[in-house]
Amino acid sequence: METHRFRTFEKTIFNRRGSFEHSSELSALLFRVQISYLIFAAEHPMGVETELKFRVPARKLKMLARWQIPDGQIGERTESDLVSTYFDTGKQKLNRHGLSLRIRQAGDKHIQTIKSAPGVQFGRGEWETEIEGNTPDLSKIDGTPLERLAPKKLRRKLKPIFETSVHRTTLPVRTKRSEIELAVDQGRLIAGRRSSPIEELELELKKGRPDDLFRLAKAVERKAQAELYFRTKSERGYDLAFGKSGHAVYAEPIELKEDMEADEAFRIIGRSTVRHFAANADAVQNLEPEGIHQMRVGLRRLRTAMSLFSHALPGDRSEKIKAELKWLTNELAPAREIDVFVKEKISRATRDVVPRRGGKAIEKEFAARRAEALERARKALNSERCRTLLVDVLEWIEARHEGTQKDASTPIGKFAVDILHRRGKKLLKEGRDLEKLSARERHKFRIGIKKIRYAVEFFESLFPGKRDRKQIARLSKHLKKIQDALGSLNDFIAHQKLAADVALKAPAQNRRARAFVSGVVLGREVEAVKPLMKIAIKEVRELRRLSYKNPMPFSLS
C-alpha cells in the first residue's frame, strides 16, 4: 500500500517535470523520494511468503524431519518451541478484513506479525517487527494493511482469540537453483476449552524457482501421504474459537484489474477456485453433504475457467488436468444426488404415505445408499490420486508456459467482454426453442447457462460502475432462475432412475410396498416439475429483453 503511494508520487513528479526550471531540481527531488522510500521499506519490511502447506499423518512427521531429500543438500537442522497468540476484536474486525495479528514468543523475543489472507495470490503478504511484551504494539503498524483499520479505539478492543503451541523442526534445503525451507510443526491449536492437533509440514521458497518447490512437494506427497492443505493456522483457529470447524467453505470474491493480461487473470481465478474446492476437505472428511456440494461447485468453477480461457492456455497438460478434475467431480456426484433426493423427496413422502412398511423400507434403503455415497466421496479425497491431483493442478496454474497462446497477452477487460458477448449471444439463440430440446440438449444448454453465470462472477470486478452493477445483478438473477429450473428437471430424470432401481431390487416381502412408495414420491415430483419449463422459457425471454433494452458493456444481444 505504502509502496504504491511512493511510486504514485514519483510518477506524478515525473509527469510534471516540465514545471521545474532546472533538471537538477527534478533529479534532486526524485532522489529524495527514492531515498525516503528505501528508508521506509527498511523500517517496514513486507515479505511475501511463497509456501505450500501439507497436512501429514502424525506417524509420518518424525520421519520427514530425518528425511534425506532427493537431489538436495540439507543444511543445519534447528529445533524451536513457538507459542503464538492471535488477537482480534469480539466482532472479528481483522478477520472480516482478511487480516490476522499474531504475537509469537520464541525464547526471550516477541515478534508481532500481520498477515493478509491467502486469497487469490500465490503466497501471502507478511509484515513482522520485534516488540516488547506479549500485547500488540499498534505504534508499529504504519505501512501495513492494519493501519487503515486502527483507530484509537481498536487498541482497547483487541483481545486474545486463540493460540498455537508448536514444536518446529526446520531444515534448510538447497538445490542447484533454489533455497527452500522445510518446516515440520507438531502441536495444538487452543481456543478456550477447545483444542485441535497441528500436524503440518510447510515448504517455503526462500530463493529460486517455483518449479523446484513443486518438485520437492511431489516428493513429500509420495513419501508421507501428505495432503496439500489450504487452511492456515489462523483460519483454523477462528473456526475453532467460534465453533465452525469442519464446515463448508464458500467461494471468495475475485478482484481483477482491467489492464491485467488474460493469463495472469486466469491464475488469480484458478487459485481462487482451487482454494474453494480444496478448503472443503475437512467438511468432506466429516461427511457433511454441503461440504461435498461446495467442493463440486469449486471443481466446476475451475473447469469453467479452463473452458473460458481455453484459447489463452496451452493444450499440453490441460486435457490431463481436465480429465482428473472430472474424475473427482464424478466421485462426489452420487453423494450430492442421493442426499438431495432423501432430504427433499423421501423424508417428506414417508412421513404421510401408506403403507408405512414401504415407507420405512425405502427410507432405510436410501439411508444406506446415502452413507455409501458419502463414504465413496471421502475415500476419493483420501486417495493418492486426489493428493497428486491437488499438487499437479496448483503447479499447472502457477507455471509460466512455454509457447503460450496468443490470447494470453490480451488485456482481461477486452477478453472478458469478448467471452461474455460471444457466449451470451450463442445461449440466447439456443434458448429460442427451449421447449423443443431433448433432455440431453436441455442439459447441455443448462451447462452453458451455468458457465456464463460463473463467468459473470469471475469478471464482475471489471465493471465497477453503478449502472453496470445493477445490470450484472439482474443478469445473474435471470441466469440463476434458468439454471435452477432446468436443474430440477434434470434431477427429476435422475430421481426416476433411483426410485425405479430401489423398487426393482427390493426383497419379495416388501417389493409392492416399496414400489407404491416410489410411485408416490415420483408422482409428487411430476406435479412439482410441471411449471419448471414455463419458468425457464420465461426467464430466457426476460434475459433477451434485458439485453435489448439495457445493453451491458458486454451486451448479449
Write a structural description.
The protein has 557 residues and is α+β, with helices and mostly antiparallel strands. The chain folds into 4 domains: 2-43; 47-245, Hypothetical Protein Pfu-838710-001; 261-336 and 347-409, Up-down Bundle (Four Helix Bundle (Hemerythrin (Met), subunit A)), CATH 1.20.120; 411-557, Alpha solenoid (CHAD domain). Helix content is 56%, strand content 16%. The protein is built from 18 helices and 11 strands. The chain has helices spanning 2-15, 23-43, 58-65, 93-96, 152-157, 210-224, 233-241, 262-278, 281-285, 289-308, 318-352, 356-381, 384-398, 412-430, 439-459, 466-504, 511-529, 532-549; strands spanning 46-49, 51-55, 73-74, 78-88, 99-106, 109-116, 124-131, 159-174, 179-191, 194-207, 227-228. Strands 1, 2, 3, 4, 5, 6, 7, 8, 9, 10 and 11 form an 11-stranded antiparallel beta sheet that branches. Helix 8 packs antiparallel against helix 13 and helix 16 (466-504) runs antiparallel to helix 18 (532-549). The longest helix has 39 residues, at 466-504. The radius of gyration is 27 Å and the shape is globular. The two termini are 40 Å apart. The model is unreliable at 1-23, 33-48 and 553-557 (pLDDT under 50).
